[in-house]
Design goal:
This protein is mainly β and 126 residues long. The protein contains no helices and 11 strands. 0% of the residues lie in helices and 48% in strands.
Length: 126
């Protein structure tokens, strides 16, 4: 069983930066696809960015390209999300996901992942 625990959220002014972490336990995540999603009140869960199973591909939502960077440290079994130039519309609960068998074409679909963290709140004030 895989457990995912996010940290690093908080309140930041527009234009600021935050770095989120997702610590995984229970399995070696080296061959898992991992990603970040966000969920704002009244809206659907939205893909932010992540890695395919092999780690050979990194994908980002258009709304965060050039501002957010996903990285992973396999030795620490941890996924990161570096967020810069934050905007009020980035306010949401950010959660990480993981899956061992997901195919590349399904990476942006939250329902296709087997494992979810509880999330960390990011609030960007204007």
């Amino acid at each position: 069983q895989v457990q995912l625990v996010e940290s690093g959220g908080g309140v930041v002014q527009a234009g600021g930066s935050l770095k989120l972490s997702c610590a995984a336990s229970g399995r070696n995540m080296r061959t898992y696809a991992m990603a970040w999603f966000r969920h704002a009140p009244g809206k659907e869960r939205v893909y932010v960015g992540g890695f395919s199973r092999t780690g050979g591909y990194t994908y980002y939502a258009d709304s965060v390209k050039g501002r957010f960077t996903v990285s992973r440290d396999n030795a620490k079994n941890t996924l990161y999300l570096q967020m810069t130039s934050l905007k009020p519309e980035d306010t949401a609960v950010y959660f990480c996901v993981a899956d061992l068998r997901i195919i590349t074409s399904s990476l942006r679909l939250p329902a296709q992942y087997d494992y979810f963290g509880l999330g960390t709140q990011v609030t960007v004030s204007s």
